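Recall the central idea of this unit: under ordinary conditions, the amino acid sequence of a chain determines the structure it adopts. In this exercise we apply that idea directly, starting from the sequence alone.
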Amino acid sequence: MLHPTDHVGLVACSNPLQTSRRAEIDALCDKLKTLGLVPVVSDCIFAENGGFRTDPTARAAALMRCYADHRIRAIFDLSGGDLANEILPRLDWEQIRANPKPFFGYSDLTVLVNAIFAMTGQPAHLFQIRTLVGSSGAEQRRRFAASVLGEGEDLYSADWHFIQGTRMEGTLVGGNLRCLLKLAGTRYLPNFSDRLLFLEALHGTPPQVVTYLSQLEQMGVFDQIAGLLLGTFTQLEEQLSPAGAARLIADVIGRRDLPIAKTQQVGHGDASRCLVIGQLYRIAR
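Accordingly, the structure predicted from this sequence is:
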């Protein structure tokens, strides 16, 4: 996918990072340079004067500059939080369609990753590049180098345990449960028909997760999909355990004929693997 000397864009389409994290981003840029890449850093990464928000038009423009710059071969979003959906109507979707390149982001960037696929048909990646300098940084850098700069699949491979059924196949959509629901009622929501839906969450008590799932059920999503993939539900699993969280989700959905599989290797963790929205997946027991 990428090669040494390739330029990569670093953006923040959701909440800005606080300036206290500048050293972390400097360290990330150093690691990317060690891998042979050339980071091009947006001017909308950090909050000004401790603010919670940078101008959404400026954030959208920074992303569009990455798509317009033919030197930039991939785009990595460093942010998360709440604000990514602000930029969706400010993007030039025809320009994105005409300049396809891998986009990586997770958590609140679920809205952009799915919108890219829905609006252009281009795949996009659920992955946070800051994990390269997190607590599992050395292993993540090894996976990244082998899979993004090489021919390996380690970064893109997760171990799935079936809760219901034995196999599933379909094009993947989804991401963070709360953030995916921001697309409800908009043109940026992907088609769920015969798709595999991936869901994960950092925050969410049992009542909160139940209400989010109920909204998806009332949208008809669980009647359309061909299978459900679950990542980590951090807060929910702290209260119920991973198995208990999976049982709750399966009970709320209530479709015993729907294949459901779970992994502990994708979600809000420093060792999270990468999933590709818009890619065909075949998963079997």
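The radius of gyration is 18 Å.
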